[in-house]
Amino acid sequence: TAVPSNTPPPTPSPVPTLGPFQFLLLPKQAQAGEDCKIILQAAPGSVCYLNYYTPDGNLSTARGLGQATPDSQGKCTWEWHISAKTRTGTAKLIILLNDLQESHEFEIIP
What we know:
It is a single chain. Helices cover 0% and strands 45% of the residues. The protein is built from no helices and 8 strands. The protein is globular and about 35 Å long.
């Protein structure tokens, strides 16, 4: 016979939903004054594009952003410098892969 238990059933942990993109490197935070790097897996011949919005909402024009061409292994890589003057807070990334788009947020820390 089963004995009733007063222990509540475990609450399932939320599972993060992932979009169609496969990131090999996607930071959750970056430090002002340092470099940031993102690597996206894509098929050869894909068009990859990255926009980075600072915590102030400004579109960055830093070298290393914008269009990236997949290498022989299909990796699109972006690396850029985050100005030491960038204020802390939540920054936004808009990534385009062919006709698909994803947005991600990450924290700029001092």
